[in-house]
Amino acid sequence: MHGLLGVRGVAIEISDVWRERVKRLFPDLQEGTSLEYTSEADFNYNCLSWALGCNTLVFENSKGAFWMWPTIPDDTAEGWAQLIELHGFTRTDTAEAVLGYEKVVILENEEGDLHAARSCENGMWKSKLGTGPDIDHVGLHGLKQTYGEVVIVLERHRPDWETNSES
Amino acid sequence: MTPCYAHDTCGEEHILRPPRSKTWPSHSHQLKIRRKQPVEALETPGLRSIFNGLVKRWRDETWHFSSLRKRISHPDYLKIIGMGTPAIPWILEELRKEPDYWFAALEGITREDPAPHTDGANRVRDAWLAWGERRGY
Question: What are the sequence ranges of the domains in chain B?
Answer without folding.
Answer: 39-134
